[in-house]
TrEMBL record:
It comes from Flavobacterium nackdongense. SUPFAM superfamilies: Nucleoside diphosphate kinase, NDK. This is Nucleoside diphosphate kinase. Homotetramer. Keywords: ATP-binding, Cytoplasm, Kinase, Magnesium, Metal-binding, Nucleotide metabolism, Nucleotide-binding, Phosphoprotein, Transferase. The gene is ndk. Residues 3-137 form the Nucleoside diphosphate kinase-like domain. Belongs to the NDK family. ATP binds at K11, F59, R87, T93, R104, N114.
Length: 139
């Protein structure tokens, strides 16, 4: 299996609730290497661009408002099979369906406020990483 990269955000709910350290520890303990990292905040326009794929969905307005509501942690992560393994580590979108021991099971509060983002493909991981990090911030 090739080493590749995924992109994640610790969402505003988890930052607000004090879970940055615990979530980063779970990520590194699961074998992911952090190659970019920062605390930042999305503007409404940034959130609309980042989640443009969901612009026709009924929850889009709520999603954009939530994702721009406070600071987030953005990171690029490296590991073998990074995209799929990270989605396993975070668990299902709805924390009620997330497996025991996953980040969302532990820290998400609802379907909308679900603690973390994980890219859904290698292609989107590259696009999302470049959206957040300039070349000199990528290691
Ligand atoms: P993400 O992109 O954030 O990693 O989450 P995901 O792949 O598991 O889920 P996705 O279908 O891509 O949805 C993106 C985010 O939109 C919010 N959402 N709310 N209220 C709802 O029915 C609903 N459905 C999705 C969640 O914050 C989800 O993570
Ligand atoms: Mg998604």
């Amino acid at each position: 299996m090739a080493t590749n990269r995924t992109f994640t955000m610790i969402k505003p709910d988890a930052v607000k609730n004090g879970h940055i350290g615990s979530i980063l520890a779970m990520i590194t303990n699961a074998g992911f290497k952090i190659t970019s990292l920062k605390l930042t905040q999305l503007t409404v326009s940034d959130a609309e661009k980042f989640y443009a794929i969901h612009s026709e969905r009924p929850f889009f307005g709520e999603l954009v408002a939530f994702m721009s509501s406070g600071p987030i942690v953005a990171a690029i992560l490296e590991k073998e099979n990074a995209v799929a393994d990270f989605r396993t580590l975070i668990g299902a979108t709805n924390p009620a369906d997330a497996a025991e021991g996953t980040i969302r099971k532990l820290y998400a509060t609802s379907m909308g406020e679900n603690a973390v983002h994980g890219s859904d493909s290698d292609e989107n991981a590259a696009i999302e990483g470049a959206f957040h990090f300039a070349g000199r911030e990528q290691f």
